[in-house]
Amino acid sequence: MKRILSILMALSMSVSLTLPALADETPIQDTAPTTVSNAYVVMNTESGQILVQKNMDEKNYPASITKILTAAIALEVGDPKDQYEITPDDVFSYDFPGTTYVALTHDEVVTVEQLLYGTLMASANDAANCLGSYVATKENRTALNDKGEESYVSGFAEIMNEKLEELGCSNTHFTNAHGLHNEDHYTTAADMAKILRYALSVDGFRDYFGALSYTMQPTNMQPQQRPWGTQAGLFAESNKYYYEGATGAKLGYTDAAGHTMVSVAERDGVELLCVVLNCKQGNWADHRDTISLYDYCFNNFDTVTFTVDDLKQKSVPIYKEGVPYEKAQVSALEDHSLQLHKLLKKSDIRFASNVPGRYLSGDRMSGTLSFALTKSAVKEIGDAMYTELGSVPLKITAVPLTAEKPSFMEQAGSFMLSVLKVLAVLFVIFVVAILLLRAYNIRRYKKIKEKRRQRQLQRQQEMNKK
Fold first, then answer.
1. pLDDT digits over 19-76, tens only?
2. Burial zone of 274 (CB within 10 Å; 0-12 exposed, 13-18 middle, 19+ buried)
3. Domain end point (choices 269, 300, 331)
4. What is the number of domains present in the chain?
5. Residues 224-227: contacts with CB under 8 Å, at least 24 apart
6. I need a labelling partner for 391 at 20 to 30 A (CA). Which of 155, 220, 265, 284 fits?
C-alpha cells in the first residue's frame, strides 16, 4: 500500500511540474495580426528578410520618419563635432510655426550633434532643415528652390533622392529633409524598411535613434538651455507602451499621413525592425500595432541556417573560341540564416541561382542565390508570413579547367571498372595458359604416339628376320 501511495505522489508531483511549463508555451498563430495601420512591414535587420507585411508597396506619406534618412546621410557625410552657422534659407524656406521646432535662428552657431538630437529626438523640422543644409554645404550641392534661387536646402533634397535610388527605394520620392506634407513627398512601408535598415548600419546612428533625453546648451543666439526627451514610448521604460527589447523608435504625424512609426527591437539575438504607415487613429494605436507585430514575429518564427556547403552550386564552364578552357566555381560567401514560421520546416525552403549555364571569356561573372517557399508551403502558410525570402550574392571565381574530384559513386564505379579490367586480363591469361597447355599436351601426345609406332615397327622388323 505504501509503495502504491509513493508512486501516486510521484506522479502527481511530475504532473504539477509539467503543467506550468505547458501553460507557458505560446500557441502558434496561423495568421498575422489585424492592425489599425493601413500598411506595415516587419524586417530582419541582418538579412533584410521581410517576415510579414500589409500593403507594403502602397504609396503613403511618411511625415517625420523622413528624418531617419536625413540624419543617416548627415552621419555618413559629416562629423557630429562640426559646427554649422544657420542661414536665413534654413529657417525661412518653410513655414515651421504650428509644427514641431526648437526655435533655431539664422546666424546661430550650433554643432551637428545638436542638430542630430533635435532631428531624431525632438523631431524638430527646423533642426532637420539645418542638418540637410549642412550636408549640402559640405557636398557643395545647390538646386533651384520655388523662387528660382540656388539653395542648399533644395540641394539636399536631390542628395536624398540619389541615396534612395542607391538603396533601391523605387517607390519613394522626398522633397524635403523633415517630412512636412508635400504631394510629391511619399514612400512605402517596404522602402521605409530599407531606409531604416541602411540608417541602422551607419556608424553612430543608433546612439541618436535610441536616445531618451538630451539638453542643448546655450549658443551665441540663445542663452537658455533647451532640454528634449524622446517622443516615442516604445523604448522608454516609464511609458505604458514600453516594449522590452526595443532599442529605438521615431514617430511621425501630419493630417495627410496620419500616424507613422519606425522602430527596432531585439530578442534572443534576433533583431527586427518595424514600419507602420497611415495609422489614422490616435491614442497610441501606432504603438499597439507595433507591439502586436513584434510579439507575433518573435513568438511564431524560428531561425534556420544554411551553411556554405548547403548552398554549394555546380561549376560553370567558361568558353573561349568555342571550347571550354576555364571553369567558374560558384559558392555562397557565408552561411545564411532565415526566419521561418513555426508552421513550416527547413525543407519547405528552396533556393536557386541566376548563374547561366556557361560563360564566355570576358563576361562579367556575378550572380545571386534566391530563397523562396515551395508551392505547397505557400499554400499552407497563407498570409501568416511573407513568402519571398530574399537573396544573397554569390562568389564566382574563374579557375583552370582541371578534373574535379570524383564523387563517391564515381570513385566506386572507377574501382569496379579497374577490378573488371584486372579480372579480364586474368581471364585472358588463364585462357591463353589453357590453350598453351592444350597445345603442349597435343604435341607431347603426338611424340609419344610416334615413339610407340616406331617401337612397333622395330618389333615387326625383328620378327620378320626370325
1. 444 445 678 999 999 999 999 999 999 999 999 999 999 999 999 999 999 999 999 9
2. buried
3. 300
4. 2
5. 226/102, 226/103
6. 265
